[in-house]
Specification:
Blueprint (H helix, E strand, L loop, with lengths): L3 E5 L3 H12 L3 E5 L3 H8 L10 H11 L2 E4 L10 E4 L14 H9 L9 E4 L7 H9 L5 E3 L9 H6 L4 E4 L5 H10 L7 E4 L1 H32 L3 H9 L20 H14 L5 H26 L10 E5 L14 H11 L3 E5 L12 E2 L12 E4 L11 H7 L4 E4 L6 H6 L3 E3 L11
Parallel strand pairs: 1-2, 1-4, 2-3, 4-5, 5-6, 7-8, 9-10, 9-12, 10-11, 12-13, 13-14
């Protein structure tokens, strides 16, 4: 059955939710306080680089089931309101929920009694219960955390692994109404309490971060003993209890979710008096990994891990935190680039999803082959698949020295080797120390 759905916040989660619920047959109005963004979206202009999202937005506008507005009063007749507001990391590591709370305070005078308030923002554990108490029985609250991967958000929304709904016992009927919104996806639905739903979101992201930090440390160990992390990761992934995902080393984890969610979960544990040392260590390992990649680049160019990079030209392939997106938030690739720039290196970079970076310490070009011009080394920092298909002979001819540091273990060493490159990966160089 088609429902009237309101969405507050036209960011990554809000826009994806609005477009996808429209695609599922619902009538959706999305509110955002950025009026220029509202105008762009009503013209079908989507700046978020997400496969399929622009098409869904334009389809929704075309059929009349989706509209964008800067006027919250247009939410007065909706049956559901989705809170898709930023909850960034605060100064002490806690999630900053001030924007969420400001919006929630306006809801009793805005919404019709019986409207279900759905929290899709990633919020501190206990938020659902707190909002239930503040909004009262007229506006039942349901926690519905999102599990969207950037670059696959539309796919994940329309074909989810699970739909998680958290509510207090008295609001179970409201949770079942939210479940019906997803009916066309045929996804498994899990009903639980608000705290469990909220903690599941943090726990999932933190576990992925743990897995990445684990394999990055393991890659360093491989280099000490002459093992190959590619084989070690594959052999681990064959175990059904472990699985192959997130077992490839890189410059660290980043993006809009993992850094803030791990910090928030650690703070949640501290508030409860729980020593979550394993998570704290994973965060420290992630910070060290970026420095380890810089040392590896220094060694590949100068022969020593503390060699000077002043005035040395380096070409970078990738700046976004992951392939399939132009998102630079907490990007480990960008963190490595900035450290190289601070060391005096002259940087030229190409990323299919990035046109420029601020501050302008890196020259971003629109042709991947331009990064090689007079470069002492090329560095792969984001795992864009198309980097494998570059003309490596042409790249080698343009470099000052045909050296490539593959910080994602993305390339085929034989292919780039045939082009004349000396290839260095992570966890693949026998008897080479990273420290």
């Amino acid at each position: 059955m088609a429902e009237r759905v309101g969405v507050i916040g036209a960011g990554y989660v809000g826009l994806t939710s609005a477009a996808c619920f429209t695609h599922l047959g619902h009538q959706v109005v999305c509110v955002d306080n950025d009026l220029s963004k509202v105008d762009e979206l009503n013209r079908g202009e989507v700046t978020i680089a997400e496969p399929g999202l622009t098409e869904l937005v334009r389809d929704g506008l075309g059929c009349g089931r989706l509209r964008f507005t800067g006027a919250p009063e247009e939410l007065s007749d909706v049956d559901f309101i989705l809170l898709c507001l930023p909850t960034p990391k605060g100064e002490n590591g806690d999630a900053d929920v001030r924007m969420l709370d400001e919006v929630v305070a306006t809801l009793p005078g805005l919404l019709t009694p019986g409207c279900v308030v759905v929290t899709k923002s990633t919020v501190p554990v206990g938020t659902g219960t707190r909002l239930t108490e503040s909004l009262g029985p007229d506006l039942p609250v349901v926690s519905n955390p999102e599990f969207l991967r950037e670059g696959h958000a539309v796919e994940d929304f329309l074909k989810p692994d699970r739909v998680v709904l958290g509510s207090i016992p008295g609001n179970r009927a409201a949770a079942e109404r939210v479940a019906a919104l997803y009916g066309e996806t045929n996804a498994p639905v899990w009903f639980t309490d608000p705290a469990s739903a909220e903690l599941a979101k943090y726990a999932s992201n933190a576990f992925l971060a743990l897995k990445v930090s684990y394999v990055n440390v393991l890659a360093e160990l491989c280099e000490h003993y002459g093992a190959d992390i590619r084989d070690v990761g594959r052999l681990m992934g064959l175990d059904s209890r472990i699985g192959p995902a997130f077992l490839v080393p890189g410059p660290g984890w980043g993006g809009s979710c993992l850094p803030k969610d791990t910090a928030a979960l650690l703070r949640t544990a501290e508030h409860a008096g729980v020593d979550f040392g394993i998570l704290r260590d994973a965060m420290k390992a992630n910070a060290r990994q970026r420095a380890a990649v810089v040392r590896k680049i220094r060694r590949a160019i100068t022969g020593v891990s503390d060699g000077s990079l002043s005035g040395i030209r380096i070409g970078l392939l990738g700046l976004a935190f992951k392939a399939g997106t132009g998102d630079l938030r907490d990007s480990p690739a960008l963190a490595v680039a900035r450290e190289l720039a601070r060391s005096g290196a002259v940087l030229t970079a190409y990323d299919p999803g990035v046109e420029a970076v601020e501050p302008d310490t890196v020259q971003v070009v629109d042709d991947p082959h331009l990064v090689a011009k007079d470069a002492a080394a090329l560095v792969v920092l984001t795992e864009w698949p198309e980097f494998r298909e570059l003309d490596w002979d042409r790249l080698a001819a343009a470099t000052e020295r045909a050296v490539v540091v593959d910080a994602r273990n993305l390339l085929d060493p034989a292919t780039v080797g045939e082009a004349g490159f000396v290839h260095t990966g992570l966890g693949t160089d026998p008897n080479r120390r990273t420290g």
